[in-house]
Amino acid sequence: MKYFVSIGIFICFFTSCSSDKGEYIPIDQNPKLEFEIPSNFPDLDYDLSSNPPTEKGFELGKKLFYDGRLASDGVVSCGFCHIQDFAFTHHTHIVSHGVDGALGTRNAQPLHNLAFMKEFTWDGAAMHLDLQPIIPITAEVEMNETFSSIIKKIEEEPEYVQLFELAFENKEINSENILRALSQFMIMMVSANTKYDKIERNEGAVFTEQEAAGFELFKSKCASCHAGTLFTDQSYRNNGLPIDAQYNDIGRKRVTGLESDIYKFKVPTLRNIELTFPYMHDGRLKTLQDVLDHYSDGMVDSETLDPTFKNSDNTIKGIPMGQEEKEQIIAFLKTLTDDDFLNDNRFSEF
Ligand code: HEC
Ligand code: HEC
């Protein structure tokens, strides 16, 4: 509940009282960063004109992203749970853990191509990228901090004071500029240089026979949800995971209150999926083989199970697949790994 209250406050804050405050007017010391939409990508969802990434805004966002002072224990930075080598997931952790080892209930999501997404988190609780970080910052099981306390801490550091001065016209160290800077950093995290992309853009790469077979299977069995070049149609669906008694995470219903949304979660992107294990909203599945075994044999029925997975007589169909087909799909999924992105120093802590 706490999440929604604080998000509500910020929505008001953003719409009613800040339209001209944090806006940046380019100056020599702070050039605008080029943002190029990859030619095989859709249009952006994020309105860049409302918060154009600049050199200093990005630098500030990165510093904040890796700064433990955004958490009450001084340790749990954004980068603590979102680790670049694993496409910014908290890879060994089934559910992420925050300050004092407090356990959350969900698996950290990868951070890439966020400027193309409409809603954020597994249930869509955050409707704008600028608002998303309020959740981890204020959540007791994540960073357990308040903006006023963060501002006090970072105001003491001259480097921060200078970066805020250069990055934002009003020069203020306030929550709005903190969020804008974090967005500027995250907007630039585009992952679009996989083997799959190079093939789509005719840049000379070719699938192996196994990958090509996997791609065909993927298109017929998976792409209705994991759609397009982002590998998600950004809808909320129930893919038949057994209900977890420990957390009983109700998914999208938490946001909409609708019974028809119970146990639905956002269709995740599959980019860099080889590295973002463990899988599903609560990290219950360890490997891609486990994921495909779930789709072929592990589904359980419920009121909201996606109709794609049912036969006309209402029995469960799942996604029938043999072992060879699964291996082909996995080979294809591995062509979605983007080494350039994973090793891109612009996003690295050091
Ligand atoms: C304690 C671990 C933890 C910390 C710290 C943390 N996150 Fe996350 N992050 C998560 C988890 C878990 C999710 C999925 C949340 C959910 O679905 O409710 C998530 C989701 C997100 C998303 C949504 C991604 C998407 O595709 O929808 C963004 C963006 C994000 N985090 C950015 C940040 C930023 C910025 C910070 C620092 C201010 C941060 N996170 C700190 C664990 C963490
Ligand atoms: C009807 C829609 C739908 C179809 C079809 C579908 N998926 Fe999914 N997939 C989802 C949803 C929804 C989730 C997230 C479920 C959750 O965490 O509760 C998901 C999760 C995943 C994950 C875990 C991702 C992560 O970040 O943890 C993988 C991998 C995956 N699907 C692969 C596939 C493959 C491969 C196929 C085809 C064989 C497929 N999916 C077919 C909807 C679908």
Automatic annotation (TrEMBL):
Keywords: Heme, Iron, Metal-binding, Oxidoreductase, Periplasm, Peroxidase, Signal. Its main location: periplasm. Residues 209-337 form the Cytochrome c domain. It comes from the Bacteria. It is found in: Periplasm. The keyword Heme applies. The keyword Iron applies. GO terms for molecular function: peroxidase activity. Pfam families: CCP_MauG (PF03150). This is Cytochrome c peroxidase. It comes from Aquimarina litoralis.
